Structure formats: C-alpha cells, structure tokens
Request: fold
Amino acid sequence: MSGPVWIVERSDRGYPACLVDLDAAEQPRLYGVGRRDAIADLDHEAAVTIVGARQASTYGLRVAERLARDLSLAGVTVISGMARGIDAAAHRGALAGGGRTLAVLANGPDVVYPPMHRDLYRRIVDAGAAIAEHPPGAPAHKRHFPARNRIMAALGRVIVIVEAAQPSGTLITADLGLRLGRTIGAVPGQLGIRVAEGTNDLIKEGANLIRDARDVLDLLYGVGADSRPSGAGLREVPPPRPGPVLEPSLREVLGLVGSGAASVDRIALEARIAPREAAVALARLERLGYVGVDALGAHSPTDLRPPPQ
Reply:
C-alpha cells in the first residue's frame, strides 16, 4: 500500500458531483489511497473513462496507451479499472503523459489486484488515486466487477471502448454510461478478430468513432480548439512523434504496413521482394519503433512518423 486510506462520504464537500447521477442507493461511499484532491478536484467536464478487453491485441494496447497519453498531455483525467489489458495500458499512457489517472477497483483501495500490477498501482496512487466502494483489505470478488463498472461509467463524461468481445463486462460499462447520459466512443477494430466484435458493433449502433485523442476532445468540448472552455487548463494534443531517418526501401515497407499489409507474405507480394527481405525489413522497422507485432504475427504501425525526406 502507498499511503493511508481516506474516506469520502456522499455528504462531504469533496464527493464527485457526477456520482449523484447514479440512483441514490447506488451512490457509493468512496475509500481511497493516493491523492485525495484527485477526487475532490475532479472536473467531470475533463474526465474520460477508457476501458476494454483484458485479452487485448497488441494493436489495442498500443492504441489505448497512446490515446490516454495524448489526453493526459491535453489536461484530461483518465479513469480506468487497473485490469489486465486495455485498462492497464490506459493508466500507463496517462502516467506517460504526466497527468492524473484514477483507478476504480473491485476490492479494497489498498489491495493490488491483479498482483502483477503492483508497480503500476504505486505509480497511479503517486500521481492520482485508487478508489473503491469496498473497505480496506476487501479482496476482489467476481460480483464486485460489474458493480464497480457503474462508478467508472459515472466518473467519465466520455467513455471510450478499446476492444471488447461480445458479450463482455466492457460492454456493460458502455450500457451503464448510456443510461447515465454519457457520451460513448469506440475504437474500430480489425474485422474477424473476437476482441473487435464489441467495438465494431457499438460503432454500427451509433457510438462515436474514435481515431485519436482529438476525436475525444471534440466530444468533450465540441469540434475545434476554439470551442473549448477558456481557463480549462487544456493544451493541444501533441503531433505524432518523429522517428529516426528511414532509407527508401524501409519507408516503402512501412507505407505498406500502414495500408493494411500485416504479414510477411503480403509485404513481399506488394513490394515485389523476397519473403526473406520482407521479414528483415519488418524486423528492422520493429527495432526502430515504427512497427509492432502481435501474438499472431500480424504487423501494425506505431505512432512514430518518419521525418520528411
């Protein structure tokens, strides 16, 4: 545990006003570890909940981390559940952006679950807070997770789903958010991938398509920076990070990856090179940080951009 446990009652001045949108019987007493002002000063107008699949793809993890980082850099508080997969990636991204992040737990606020996230938990409570409706020492229990989703749904003005199977607990959070009048966004996923079924269905049913942090900021404040409220303390989303210089052959392969060519054979076919050359080029791009590869061997671009020629 990092620091003492504090309590915020519904009658306290620092109780988040957005939780009042829940039915009276569902408005929780909050136990927390970390910075109490992370809750007391929470600006619902600049808070986004990012959740998604535990068994996430490399693409989903990268998108969640980059999205949270850029939102954090823009002054937005990122809320998630510290679960494996997308939740943890969202917290890591927010921390990388130097901003505040809140972890809503399904156990006591001083209990690290899953245990593998002990270091992540420490970093979260140093920069923000871990909160729960369960008292200190309470273990995680299966029935606690759907209940804690309502808190995550209430705290964020916008809820962004990054990968979700159909059905899943993540979609429960989206449904709860709709009932509370929250804005729902979803990151499109690759067709035929199970963890993309839920997000693609959400988009088909009318959820806002999320491509990057700018799309989320537009949902928060309207299209364009001029529509954001003055004095909100928000900064512009940074441009894509520049990567190292690429020789023409690697630039061509990177362009093919960005166009959807994910396999060595597809790259070789479209670039008209031997499969061995394609594999070497992809390996070099991965080492340089331009390309990531998932457990199935599919390649996708990162947020690095090559410098102009």
